Every structure is written in structure tokens, then in C-alpha cells.
Amino acid sequence: MSEVHAGLEEQIDRWRTWVLRRPAITPDDAAELEDNLRGRVDDLRAGGLDDDEAFLVAVRRMGNLDDVSREFAREHSERLWKQLVLVPDVPSDAARRWRDLGVLIALALCAGGAVKALLAFGDDEGFALNVGFAVLPFLAAYFAWSRRLPGRVVGALVGLAAVLAVTVNLYPFVGSPDDDVATTLVLVAVHLPVLLWLLLGVAYAGGLWRDHARRMDFVRFTGELVVYFALIAMGGGVLVALLFATFGVVDVDVQPFVSGWLMPFAVPGAFFVTAWLVEAKQAVVENIAPVLTRVFTPLTLLLLVAVLVALLTGGQLDAVDRTLLILMDAILLLVLGLLLYSISARDPLAPGTAFDWLQLALVVTAFAVNVVALVAMVTRIADAGWTANKTAALGLDAVLLVHLVGTGWLLWRFLRKGGTFDAVERWQTRYLPVYAAWAAVVVLVFPPAFAFA
Amino acid sequence: MHIEKDLVAAAATPLVLGILADGDLHGYAILKRVGELSDGRLQWTDGMLYPLLHRLERNGWVSARWDAESGRKRKHYTLTATGREALADRQAQWDVVADALRQVWSNLQSPGTTEAWA
Which of A321, A406, A410, B30 has an alpha carbon within 20 to 30 A of A174's alpha carbon? Predict the structure, then answer.
């Protein structure tokens, strides 16, 4: 019997190879499709067709492989998270990538020019407030161009950014006598990029910012951008150090050139090239994300356990101040970053693993550390009064804590088979606007509320 | 008979959930059942069933497990409790649509009514 159907087996083998060439289709999917194909072939042969005819009809019934693969990619966007390159519907895909890079480099030069102008004409405070406006609009312009953003979305984004720019620059910040920069100005300078980044997300999502999958794509984009940018910045740092060392030997001072010209153009340039890399080479990136989270999740858990033990046993918690609050924020941010990063790279259909339990342990420990620190601090803050810094740090802590508790709860339900991983994912994307809202409050409401001090 | 693509797509989820309510099946068996239920008039592109099944799995409406039957790896799908709720919900929605359509069809069949409007 197998002798007779050797030809058919060969055809099925070739078909499987052909199917597996699609990046959106995994071997498991191919096995499932193959089972279907074989079932169909068996039925058609029983109906009187010969092997070749049955195979041809069965393959036709399977449908256009491009369409099927696109459907798989839409359903499993984490496998290949940029909808635009799911299926090469444009044959000149490589050419388009190079054109994209050209446009991005041109925009990066514009951003570098804007940063340079800001350095030349503004003081330190003006630079801190406006550097986001000098860089991010150009990246937003790239997304608007590559995603053919609708005009009304462009209008809304430009309008919002303009309102923000005018408002923060008109605020009459007053520095205190001992410390010449106003606290609220520092807070605005820190929170403004977050707000602008989330606005950029609207452009990244092609205006469809309510869509869960697009938001998740933006989360992935952000995570990969951070990792890639760190790598490129380290490489750049090595090069600059070599530059200084070599020119030091021949006694030429390159400092004015480096700080005056190289940095204003190189840093935004590195940022834009990173964005392009993440967009174009995501298949490479996808392999990094799970590895990084698997390395750093256990390490962070160890750190948190050590912190918790220290806080509970030896710690003098009445000496705590805003530094501890900011530290707590940093810890929560790290834990949430790790969680988001691994969630965004995870196959939502995979069953719970030991690693998911490890993440839950991380959430619970971070929560415990935070509660211990907060309980110790709240009474003291109430005694010492609410400064802008403490209010901002405590508010961020609350925002992060709610995010963390929600994630922990849904993760627990998923691991106890009471919920799906999809619910965990959706909670992440649903919560993103809360960060935008909080950043907007700090940027717009804090300065007048604390008398611009 | 050709049935419009949008209509097939809209019917797919309740149809698959309803078929799985009778018991666990693998993908091809679901397709065959659809064929039987519609006397072969409702034709799906075979490949499109699987992304749909994966979406139902992600929603937690069905669960899946791999079995090896006579040496062949096969994925079986089971309706979950949430899936049963979703099915009931879909059924209620389709009842409304079907009821409204039934009235439209009966109006079409009695030309006297149309003249009365004139």
C-alpha cells in the first residue's frame, strides 16, 4: 500500500515544505493543516479519484496559501508583529526597506538640526522642556508617512503636541533660592516625554489606537527599541572613547566637536536608526526578548526578596524620604517592564509554565516590597506635608501598583485555569491610557497646583 | 449555490461552537460536519478554519489537545464553559436576526401587502 502511494507522500512532503516557508505558520499549524489535507485526500480517493486528482482537489480546497497565511498572521500577531510585512504583497520588499531607511535618515538629520538649534538658542531649562518636541515629531512624521495616517488624526496629534509645547513653555516656573531649578519644571521634563511617547503610539498604530493588537505592537516596539538603543549606545560610547584617546595622543582637543556637533546629531540619529531596525528586523529581535526576560526575571526576583528582607528586618524605616519613594517607583517600573516585555513576546495559546509562576512570584514580591515601604511612608508624608516631588512619586506608585495588582490577579487566574492569557494581555493594553492621563496631570496640573515652584 | 463571503464569515463562529457542543472533534471533522449540516452548500476554504479555531482558543471558548491516533498527530478541540456561554449569546443574536428576516420574507411572499401600501 505504501509502495503505491509513494508519489502522493512525496507530493505531501513538498507541500509541507512549501507551507512551512510562510513565517506566520508554525510546524504545529502545518501539522494541523496536513492532517486536514490527508483527511480530504482519503475521502476523495474513497470517492473514486486517483492520487494525483485527490491531492490537487484537496490542495485547492485548502485555499490560497497567501490568504491562509495572512489569516494566521492576523490571529498570531506576536509571531510576526508588524502587519505591514506579514505577507510580501509588494514584491520589492527589500527596496521599500531601503527607501524607508533613507527617509528615516533624512528625518534624523532634521531632528539633529532641531536639537542643535535648541542647544544654541535655549538655556538648560528650555532644552530639558523641549528636547522631546525636537525629536519625537520627526519619528511621528515617519510613522504618519509609512502608515498613511488619516489627515484628521495628524491634525489631532499636531494640535495636542502644540498645546503641550505652548503650555509648558508659557508656564512661569520659579526656582527656589537654594536650588535654582523649579521642582515642577523637573517633573514636567521627566513626564512630558512619556506623554509624547504615548501620542507617538497613536501614529505608530496608524490612528487605530483603540485596537488591542496595535497597542500590543507598540508595546513590543517600545521594548525592542530600548534594548536595541542600549546596544547601539554602548557601541557608540566605545567609539567616542577611542576618538578621545586617539586625538589625545596627537594633542588635538575634540571636546568642542563632540559636544557641539557629534552628540546632537548622533544621539537622535542612533534613536532613529534603532527605530528602523526594530521595524525592519523584528524576526531577529523576537529571539532576544524571551532570552532577556528569562535571564532577568529570576535575578530581579532575588533582588526583590533581598530588599524585602532588608526592609522587614534591619531597615530604619522612619528615615525614609522621597528617595525611597522614587526607588519604589523604579522597582515597580522594572518589574512591569519585564512583565510587559515577556508578555508581548509570549504565545498566548501556550499553557502555563514554571516561568509564568516565576513571574507571578515576581509580581507578589514587588507588591509586598511596595506595601511595606508605603505603609512606612504614608504617615510621615502626611506629617511633613505634600511637596510636588512626593505627590508625583506617590501618584506614580499608585498607578503602577494598580497595574501590577491587576496583572498579578489575571496571571493567577490564568495559571489556575480560571482565565485566559488573552485577558492578561488585554489588561496591559487597556491600562496604557492611564499612564498618558497621569503624565498629562503632572505636566499640565502640577505646575499651577504647586505655584510653579 | 454561492453564499456570500461575509455571510459565511459571520456564521462561522456560532457554527463551529455549536458543532463542538455535541462533542470533541478535530479540524477536518468539523469541516465535514459543516458539509453534512448544509448538504454541501456551505463551503469553507479548509485552511481558514484553523486561524478561526485558534482565535476561539485564545478567547478561551475552546481548548485544544494534541493526540496521536494511528501514528498521526491530531489536534482535538473541546468547547469550554465560557464557550458554551458565548454560544448561547450568539444563538440569542442569531434568533433576533432570523426572526426579523422571517418577517421580511413573509412580507415579500404576499404581494397583497405591497399593493396595500401603494
Answer: A321
Asked if B9 reaches chain A (Cβ–Cβ under 8 Å), the answer is no
Four-point Cα dihedral B35, B38, B41, B43, nearest 10 = -40
Which residue in chain B is spatially nearest to A58 when comparing CA positions?
Answer: B46
| Domain end position, chosen among A224, A246, A280 | A280
Q: What is the pTM of this model?
A: 0.70
Residue B59 has its nearest CB partner, among A39, A76, A420, at A420
3-state helix, strand, coil split of chain A in percent (to 5) is 80, 0, 20
Other beta carbons less than 10 A from residue B39's beta carbon: 7
Burial of A96 (0-12, 13-18, 19+ CB in 10 A): middle
Assembly ipTM: 0.81
- Summarised one tens digit per residue, pLDDT across range A213-261 is 888 888 888 888 888 899 899 999 999 999 989 998 888 888 888 888 8
Residue A179 lies in a domain: yes
Write down the CATH number for the domain with range B5-111.
Answer: 1.10.10.10
CA dihedral A304, A309, A314, A320 (to 10 degrees): 40
Chain B within 8 Å of A42 (Cβ-Cβ)? Answer: no
CA distance A162 to B9: 44
Residues of A with CB below 8 A from B47's CB? Answer: 33, 36, 62-63, 65, 67-68, 71
Answer whether residue A250 is part of any domain: yes
